[in-house]
Amino acid sequence: MSQDNIMKLECTECKRVNYNSHKNKKTLKERLTINKFCKACGKHTAHKETK
């Protein structure tokens, strides 16, 4: 996996970076929002893509 395709996913409630993922930047221009489990919150929350 190349470094330019890696993105960080940050919890919208506690602002912790919990996940790393990748995406195709040619087809997806806007930032992603995915529901994932946050270990700090202890529940499923929305995680947004950070820089």
From TrEMBL:
Matching Gene3D superfamilies, A to Z? Answer: Ribosomal protein L33 (2.20.28.120)
Q: Does the keyword Nucleus apply?
A: no
Which regions form coiled coils? none
Q: Does this entry carry the keyword Glycoprotein?
A: no
Q: Name one GO molecular function term.
A: structural constituent of ribosome
UniProt-listed InterPro entries: Ribosomal_bL33 (IPR001705), Ribosomal_bL33_sf (IPR038584), Ribosomal_zn-bd (IPR011332)
GO annotation terms (biological process): translation
Keyword annotations from UniProtKB, A to Z: Ribonucleoprotein, Ribosomal protein
Q: Which domain of life is it from?
A: Bacteria
Q: Which GO terms describe its cellular component?
A: cytoplasm; ribonucleoprotein complex; ribosome
Tell me its family: Belongs to the bacterial ribosomal protein bL33 family.
Protein name as annotated: Large ribosomal subunit protein bL33
Which organism was this protein described from? Answer: Candidatus Falkowbacteria bacterium RIFOXYA2_FULL_47_9
What gene name is given for the protein in this entry? rpmG
